[in-house]
């Protein structure tokens, strides 16, 4: 009996160590992953872009509907991958950042959003709504069980400003809830002529308040040469780029952080999350467009984590089962001694 209990204990210890290592270290980032220079240089690619079952809004045509700072109210269902990431404040949930649904249990957002609260259990993901003040049968309010911040993120400079929120349960896709496509293999197609939109519940003016009604605005890519000029930011992170309008007419603002820059590629007839709203100098200021972190530069990191879901569940279950086996072993040992 003693040898059986010892074997069970060793099995449990091994599973627990593997599980702990998986969560502590995470996937190893690809070498040189964060050294590219924007759409002008080629970002890491897959053999083919992921275009199946993503990036389509069932309730509106690909280029229809009404068209943040200088924006207008978004039509219901226009952006079914938009997520409001909220933090519990007493009896209320407060909108902190936007996010983009990229898998049925994963939300892509900005790493700097987690400075408000690093404990995942304080967060909720609200999906399937344009109006945060209303409840509806198609709206989902889901707990967050894990926050994975890119390990090389630097808060002071917004370098590598990207994070993943894992939901407690998978969402079911419908007309109001859909994933957006990741830009692997297509990011290099982004240029000033690409049709792009931003959308969020953030401030509609720099000193204003956030809004419960989802806003949207059409923007375009702005070259790194302009964005890095002395008249503008001087230097932005290598894994980021600018988008908006040079005169500041349309821009993102506080509360829009983490939300997607959604670009439509007609050859694929889908929207791709080309960027994640990261930071800006004020809101809607001339020469200071929004700065967006690009998921394409983190392809290996993202795909490693997005494919971990089943592995994490298996290790979690193994750990629980091992704890039960160890408890039974202890009882047996006590019985024979």
TrEMBL record:
Q: Where is this region: Disordered?
A: 29-50
Presence of the UniProt keyword Membrane in the record: no
User: Which CDD domains is this protein grouped with?
Assistant: Tryp_SPc
Write down the species.
Phodopus roborovskii (Roborovski's desert hamster)
PROSITE patterns assigned to the protein according to its UniProt record, in alphabetical order: TRYPSIN_DOM (PS50240), TRYPSIN_HIS (PS00134), TRYPSIN_SER (PS00135)
Signal peptide stretch: 1-20
Name recorded for this polypeptide? Tmprss12 protein
Single GO biological process annotation from the record: proteolysis
Q: Which residues form the Peptidase S1 domain?
A: 68-307
Signal keyword on record: yes
The molecular function terms in GO held by this entry are: serine-type endopeptidase activity
The alphabetical list of record keywords is: Disulfide bond, Hydrolase, Protease, Serine protease, Signal
- Gene3D superfamilies xrefs: Trypsin-like serine proteases
């Amino acid at each position: 009996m003693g040898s059986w209990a010892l074997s069970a204990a060793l099995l449990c210890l091994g599973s627990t160590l593997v599980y702990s290592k998986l969560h502590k270290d995470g996937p190893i980032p690809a070498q040189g992953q964060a050294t590219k220079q924007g759409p002008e240089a080629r970002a890491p690619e897959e053999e083919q872009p992921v275009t199946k079952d993503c990036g389509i809004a069932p309730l509106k045509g690909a280029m229809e509907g009404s068209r943040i700072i200088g924006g207008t109210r978004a039509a219901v269902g226009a952006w079914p991958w938009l997520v409001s990431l909220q933090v519990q404040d007493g009896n209320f949930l407060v909108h902190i950042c936007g996010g983009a649904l990229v898998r049925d249990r994963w939300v892509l957002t900005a790493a700097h959003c987690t400075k408000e609260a690093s404990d995942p259990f304080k967060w909720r993901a609200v999906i399937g709504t344009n109006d945060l003040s209303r409840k509806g049968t198609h709206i989902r309010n889901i707990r967050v069980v894990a926050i994975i911040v890119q390990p090389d993120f630097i808060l002071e400079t917004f370098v590598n400003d990207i994070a993943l929120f894992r939901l407690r349960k998978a969402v079911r896709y419908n007309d109001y809830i859909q994933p957006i496509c990741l830009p692997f293999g297509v990011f290099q197609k982004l240029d000033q002529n690409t049709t792009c939109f931003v959308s969020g519940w953030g401030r509609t003016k720099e000193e204003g308040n956030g809004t419960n009604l989802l806003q949207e605005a059409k923007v375009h890519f702005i070259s790194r040469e302009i964005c890095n000029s002395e008249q503008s930011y001087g230097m932005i992170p290598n894994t980021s780029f600018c988008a908006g309008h040079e005169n500041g007419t349309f821009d993102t603002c506080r509360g829009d952080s983490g939300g997607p820059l959604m670009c439509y590629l007609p050859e694929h007839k889908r929207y791709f999350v080309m960027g994640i709203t990261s930071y800006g100098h004020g809101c809607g200021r001339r020469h200071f467009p929004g700065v967006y972190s690009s998921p394409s530069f983190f392809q290996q990191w993202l795909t490693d984590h997005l494919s971990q879901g089943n592995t994490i569940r298996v290790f979690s279950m193994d750990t629980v089962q091992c704890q039960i086996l160890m408890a039974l072993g202890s009882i047996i040992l006590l019985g024979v001694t």
